Amino acid sequence: MASGAPNVRELLELERQIYQESIDRVLLQQEKLNSGVLEDFVGRCKPFEQDRERELEVAQTQLQFSLSDAQTLLVFNLQQAENVYKTQREQLKVKLLESTKRRRAKIEMRLKALDEKTSKEKSNFSKKRHIVDVQKNGNLQEKLLEEQLQRAQKKARKSFNFRHLKGVLPTPDRIVNDVMEETERFQRYREREEAVKIAEEGSVDSLVHVETSGDGRTLSCRGENEVENTFAVGEEVMLTSQLTEEDFLGFVSAITSEEVKLMLVCGTHVRVGLDRLRSGQCVLHKQPTENRGGENGEDQINIPSDVAISLEGLLRDPPDVRRRAAAVLNRLKRKTTIDIRRGF
Over the stretch 165-216, which tens digit does the pLDDT of each residue have? Predict the structure, then answer.
């Protein structure tokens, strides 16, 4: 046993030496590898390095070609898109131009037709109408108007037989009188309109002071004579229109802050604005309790007893009774309707 112990130490020392030699050899190979003189590295890695360099050069060249191709393709695509855009733009221009030409042609045809129609109307009018100046210095000439009506009636009698209408057709003298009356009436209305307009522009007080109650049941009107009239819902009133100079009988159906609603005896609903009452264009009066004869000795017309003369009675009456009442009262208040064409 004692003789075996040195052998173990020798073996361990030998093993240590072997490991040390192996480490030294590896370090030496590493130094040679780092310096590039290792035979194995030179024999094995140098060829691969050369191949790698060649492959890198090939890859670099291929990359350059790819970039060049991509740039060329991009330029081609952009040029193609530009060509498509220009082509579509030209097509759209041509389409819009053709559409505009068609519309222009249609409009020109319409204008041409209108011009031809106007020229025909003017020529026919100049041929058929004997030009007479019926207006001189801004006023209608009664004599010239009457002569024109007589001439028109003579022309009409040549083409039509008016024997069955003898005594019914108005005479030229009557038509002229009606026209002159209507002209004077309209002139008075325009003068009142101008006075109202001047009053509004000059902030002048209205001709009639109109007030409504808060509950909408009554309406008070006070004119220049300081006489105040109060009208309530359901009360019988008479509405006077300054434009037509006619009186309308009816009842107050409702009162609002902006207008007065009336129901005439014929069943027609009428709305009168408070501004028209203030300006005097329309006037409300109390309806007279009895019908009086005219100032020129006109006969008094009696309203039948079966006709409703109050708001409640009018609402209860059937439509035929209201129509009878409207006919009677219209005969009472109706004025002559002007229509010059009746004499042609």
Answer: 777 777 878 888 888 888 777 777 777 777 666 666 655 456 678 888 877 7
State how beta strands 259-264 and 246-255 pair: antiparallel
Ranges of each domain in the chain? 52-126, 142-201, 209-288+306-337
What pLDDT, on a 0 to 100 scale, did the predictor assign at position 325? 57
Give the CA distances from residue 320 to residues 11, 163, 266, 325, 326, in Å, rounded to whole numbers and listed in that order. Answer: 150, 36, 10, 9, 10
Query: How far is residue 251's CA from residue 19's CA, in Å, rounded to a whole number?
Result: 136
Token pair in block for residue 301: 């017309």
